[in-house]
Amino acid sequence: MIKPKRQYHVHPPLLLYCGVSLLVAVGAFHAQNNLLFWVFGLSMGMVIVSGVISGWMLRSVSVRREAIDATQVGEAMRVRYEVRNTSRFIALHCLTIRELIDETPEARGGGSRTEANAMAVQRGRLETAATAFVLHVGPGQVVRVEAEGLAVERGVVRSKGYVVTSSFPFGIIRKALRWDIAGDGIVRPAAEAVALVPPRRGEVKRQQDARSSNDPGPGDDFLSLREYREGDPPRAIAWRLSARHDQLRVRLSSQEATGQRWIMLRLEAMSGAAGRAEDRAGELRRERGERAISMAAGLLTRSIDDGVRVGLVIVGTGLSMPPRDGPAHLHAMLNALAMQRLDDPRLGGPEDRRTMGPRSGAHVMVVHAGMVDSSVWPGAVHLAAGRELADGEEDSGGGSGTAATGDTGRKPMQRIRRLWRKAVAS
Q1: Residues 367, 373, 375, 378, Cα dihedral to 10°
Q2: Whole-angstrom Cα distance, residue 339 to residue 323?
Q3: Is 200 helix (H, G, I), strand (E, B) or coil?
Q4: Binning pLDDT at 50, 70 and 90, where does residue 354 land?
Q5: Cβ atoms of 118 and 346 closer than 8 Å
Q6: d(Cα 69, Cα 187) in Å, to the nearest integer?
Q7: Contact (Cβ atoms closer than 8 angstroms) between residue 367 and residue 197
Q8: How far, rounded to the nearest angstrom, does the alpha carbon of residue 88 sit from its chain's CA centroid?
Q9: What's the helix, strand, coil split of the chain in %, to 5?
C-alpha cells in the first residue's frame, strides 16, 4: 500500500494569527501587563493544541480513490472515495479531499506537433478541481464520499493524485496528506440535438431477405405515431393529424431487419497557423470541429435511444467501429470522440473507402466540420457543422447543422407553421 506524504501549509489565517500574537507579545513585554501575558500564553497554547490534534488525527486517515466516473461537457465529473478511520479512540473531523489535476501545457496537448501526436489523446479540463468534504468519521468507521468538478472541455482528465487536508479545530494550522496515485477520467462531448434525416426512397438498397420488424427505425412501413421531439426531421411530421389535434405528431416507421446506420465524422486538418489558439482562423476551425464532434455524439445517442444499430467512422484516422446497439457500444463510441485530437496529422489525408466500414444497404450520415464534400460518401446524408458566410448573409443552419440533402417539402398551412415555430422555439 502506498504511504501518503505529510505536508504543512502556511495559509493566510496562520499568518494573521501569528501577526496578532506577535503584537500581543510586544505589548505584554513593553507594558509588563499580566493580562497581556495571559492572552499571549493562551494564543501560543492554541497553536500547540491545534498542531497536536490535527497531526494526531491525520495519522489515522486512510483514503482510497474508488473510481473516476465518466461524464460529458457541461456536467459534473464525480470521483468516489472511501475514507477509513483506523483509530479506535480518535474521531476525524473537517476533512477536505481534492484531486490534483495535471494542468501542465505538455499534458494538455501544448507541445510540438509531431507524428507521435497521432497516438496522443485529447486532454480534457475541469473548471475547478473535484473537491469533497467529510465532516465526521467515527473511530473505526468507513464512509464513502463523492467529489465533483464541472467539466468544460472534452478529453481525458489526468490526475496526479489526491490530497487530504484539515485545519481542525481552530483553523490555524493546516496539515495535509498526499497520495501520488495517478488516475484518468474521461469527459465525453456534449450531445447536440440533430435532426435524423432519413435516406430518400431508392437510395438505400434492400437485400433480398429484407423484412420489416416491430422496432422503430429508418424504414418505410408505418408503425405508429408519437409526440414531436426536438431533432425530429420535418418530413416525419404528420401535418394533417397535427393540425387536427393542435399538437405536433411524428410518424414512426418500422426498421428493416438488415438496416444499419453509420455516422461518419470528417474533421478539418489543423496545421500551421490554424492550429494556434491566438489565430482567429484557427479558433473558427476549432469551434467547427468541436461542434461537428458534438453533432456526431448527438446522432449516435439518438440512434441508440431509438434502438438502431449504429457505427462510427472518423475519416482519415482509420477508426471504424462496426454497428452495434446498447449502452456499452454507445459509451465506447463517445469515448473515441472524446479522445480525438483536432491537431491529429492524419486528418485530411487519403482514406480507402473499402476500409471505412459502411456497406450497401446501410443508412450513412456524414458530419463535416468544414465545407460539405459529397464525394466522401455519395448518396449519404451530409450535415455541415459550419460554413463560410457572405457579407450580410444570415446563418440558417440553426443548432442542428445544415443538411445537404434536406427536404424542403410543401409549405404547410398557417396553423401548422405556428405549431412548428412553437416546437422549434421550445
Answers
A1: 50
A2: 20
A3: coil
A4: low
A5: yes
A6: 9
A7: no
A8: 42
A9: 30, 30, 40
CB atoms within 10 A of CB 373: 14
| One-character DSSP codes across 261-311 | EEEEEEPPP--GGGGSTTSHHHHHHHHHHHHHHHHHHHHHHHHHHTT--EE
293-320: average pLDDT:
90
Rounded-to-integer distance, Cα 127 and Cα 76, Å: 10
Q: Say if CB 72 and CB 128 are below 8 A apart.
A: no
CA distances from 233 to 17, 230, 251, 295, 407 (A): 66, 9, 10, 15, 9
Count helices and strands (H / E) in the chain: 6, 20
Q: CA-CA distance, 69 to 71, in Å (whole number)?
A: 6
21's CB contacts (< 8 A; 6+ apart) are 40, 43, 44, 47
Cα four-point dihedral sign 287, 293, 299, 304: negative
User: How many residues would you count in the chain?
Assistant: 426
Residues in CB range of 415: below 8 A, 6 or more apart: 243, 246
pTM of model > 0.85:
no
Do you find a cis peptide bond into 169, omega within 30 degrees of 0? yes
Transcribe 167-183 into DSSP letters: -TTTSS-EEEEEE---E
Contact 77, 130 (CB under 8 A): yes
Averaged confidence pLDDT in the chain: 77
At 418, is the secondary structure helix, strand, or coil? helix
Cell of 331: 459509451
**Phi (first) and psi of residue 240, to 5 degrees:** -65, -45
Residue 15: which pLDDT band, with cuts at 50, 70 and 90?
Answer: confident
In contact, 102 and 73? CB cutoff 8 Å:
no
Q: How many other β-carbons are positioned within 10 Å of the β-carbon of residue 272?
A: 11
pLDDT over 70 (residue 6)? yes
CA distance 106 to 111: 5
Q: Which three cell numbers stand for residue 115?
A: 507524428
Structure confidence at residue 133 (pLDDT): 94
388 in Cβ contact with 371 (< 8 Å): yes
Q: Return contacts of 277-286, CB within 8 angstroms, 24+ apart.
A: 284/386, 285/342, 285/369, 285/370, 286/342
Q: Identify residue 135 by its one-letter amino acid code.
A: L
